[in-house]
Amino acid sequence: MEAQILFHTKHMLGEGPTWDSENERFMWVDIVGKTLQSYDVKANHVHKWSFSEYVTTVVPINKEEVVLAMHNGVYIFNLISEELTPLANPIKNLNIRFNDGKCDANGRLWVGTMEVHGSANEGALYCVFPDGSVKEKVVPVTISNGIAWNTTNDMMYYIDTPTKKVAAYDFNVQTSKVAFRDYVVAIPDGQGAPDGMTIDEEGMLWVAHYGGWKVSRWDPQTGKQLDEVRVPCSNVTSCTFGGKDLNELFITTARQGLDEEELRKQPHAGGVFRVETKTRGVKAYSFR
C-alpha cells in the first residue's frame, strides 16, 4: 500500500493523530511547532490552535473540549473559548516532557514522558484519572511512545522506542493494573525505530517507523509482519484509523533532523498522509 499526501503541513514533529468518531473530525499535533490541528470532515476545514509550549497528545472529551498533554502538564482545553485548565502535573523536572498518549476503555489517559534530549531511562508511563489523580505505571522508560489495547481489554501494547520492540502487558480494565508479559514485536535492523502505534479490529498492530519510511502491520500472537504502508518520507511518527467506516489510516510525519538535501528529496516531509485499508480500525476512546 502507498500513502498519499492529505495535508502538506511541513510539521517539524507531527504526532498524536486521533479520530473523533462522535464529531467526525481528525485531530493531531505538531509538538515542536506547538500547535493543535483539527480537520472537520463535514465542513472540509482545518482549524489550528497555537500554544506557548510543546503540545504532545490530544484526546477528545466532547464537542467543545479535549485533553492535552503539553511539555510538563496535562490540561483540559476548550476549543471554543480557548481556555486552558490544568488537570495534572506529575513532572517536577523541566528537562522531562510528555510525549505520546491515549485513553483506555474506562476513559483514563495513559501518557508517557521522555528527557528532552532522549537520555536513557529518564521517562515513565503514567495513568491520569478523570479527577486529575496520577499513577506511575511503567518505569523507567527512555522515549515513551505508542500504546494500544486489544478489543477484549485484557492486553495493553506499549512502545519504548529505543528498545525497538513492542511490549505486551496483562491489563485489568477495572483497576488499571498492568503487568509485563513479553515482547511481541521486534523491528528489524535498518527499518527505523518504532514510534506511534494503533490497532485494528482483528487485533493486529500498526506501527509507525521513525527513520523507516513506512507503517507496518504485525500479528502480536506470532510476531510476524503481515503488511506495510509505504510513506514518501523517512520520519513516520504515528498513525490512527478514521473515517466514517474506520478504514482510512491517517499518518503523521516529521521534518526534524533532516538536512537540506534530505528535505529536497522528501518535499512532503512533515505532512499528514492517508491510505484506505482493507482492514477496519477500532473506535478511539474519549477522556471522561
From TrEMBL:
Lineage summary: Bacteria, Bacillati, Bacillota, Bacilli, Bacillales
| Residues engaged in binding substrate | 97, 99
- Tell me which InterPro entries the record gives: 6-blade_b-propeller_TolB-like, Regucalcin, SGL, SMP-30
Could you say which protein family the record assigns here?
A: Belongs to the SMP-30/CGR1 family.
Q: Which reaction does it catalyse?
A: D-glucono-1,5-lactone + H2O = D-gluconate + H(+)
Q: Name one GO cellular component term.
A: cytoplasm
Instruction: Provide the active-site residues from the annotation.
Output: 195
Task: Please report the name of this protein according to its UniProt entry.
Answer: Regucalcin
Q: Which cofactor does it need?
A: Mn(2+); Ca(2+); Zn(2+); Mg(2+)
Residue positions binding a divalent metal cation: 15, 145, 195
Q: Name one GO biological process term.
A: L-ascorbic acid biosynthetic process
The answer to whether the entry has keyword Nucleus is no
Residue intervals of the SMP-30/Gluconolactonase/LRE-like region domain: 13-255
The organism of origin for this protein:
Lederbergia lenta (Bacillus lentus)
Q: Which GO terms describe its molecular function?
A: calcium ion binding; enzyme regulator activity; gluconolactonase activity
Q: How is the cofactor bound?
A: Binds 1 divalent metal cation per subunit.
